[in-house]
Design a protein that fits this description.
Elements: H1 3-18, E1 24-25, E2 41-44, H2 57-74, E3 78-79, E4 86-102, E5 111-112, E6 118-119, E7 124-141, E8 146-156, H3 164-180
Parallel strand pairs: 2-3, 2-4
Antiparallel strand pairs: 1-8, 4-7, 5-6, 7-8
Helix pairs in contact: 2-3
């Protein structure tokens, strides 16, 4: 990403946060806050996610569904596979990312080439890697098949598997806050 793209990205993020969108992205023109008290039951669509090859993948999916179920139950909904009022569809993408930093004069020395000839330029250099997860949650009216609410959130995933449940809990809390406008 060049400097102009970084500035543009920062500007767009500043506008988004200034408008109160927060970490959950929702098309506010299409989806209003959802009154979950108007429904009694829910279930999940089958998750057709590509296994990442990690042994914790299936366990994390199960924990995510459990966290969402518990949150739905706090709104008075119960889970049933027999003709539920709402169905929840989860889209999950996990990507490997490279963390970079920009070189600067204070930390990155000049490169001397020959006698009294030197150069220095701004560059992006890699400093680490991480995994970023994107979760999109669709809440669908089961009888009509219409999406009532769709929200997306991105997060850097914890390196230690023991920290994943806490991240999942945080993400589910943020999704429900945005969905119900708490």
């Amino acid at each position: 990403m060049n400097k102009a793209q970084r500035i543009l990205s920062f500007f767009i993020l500043a506008i988004a946060y200034g408008c109160g969108s927060g970490p959950v992205l929702v098309d506010a023109e299409r989806y209003d806050a959802l009154d979950l008290s108007a429904y009694q039951t829910f279930d999940f669509f089958q998750i057709d996610a590509e296994d990442t090859g990690t042994p914790e993948f299936a366990q994390n999916i199960a924990y995510l569904k459990k966290a969402i179920s518990q949150k739905m139950e706090t709104y008075g909904l119960r889970q049933t596979s027999t003709n539920p009022d709402l169905k929840v569809n989860l889209g999950i993408v996990v990507e490997d990312k490279v963390q970079t930093r920009e070189t600067n004069l204070a930390t990155d020395p000049f490169l001397y080439i020959g006698q009294r000839s030197y150069s220095w330029k701004v560059e992006e250099i890699p400093v680490g890697t991480y995994k970023e997860g994107t979760l999109t949650m669709h809440v669908v009216d089961n009888p009509t098949g219409e999406a009532l609410w769709v929200g997306t959130i991105q997060r850097a995933l914890p390196k230690k598997a023991k920290n994943t449940p806490g991240t999942i809990d945080d993400v589910v809390e943020l999704l429900f806050q945005k969905m119900t406008k708490q």
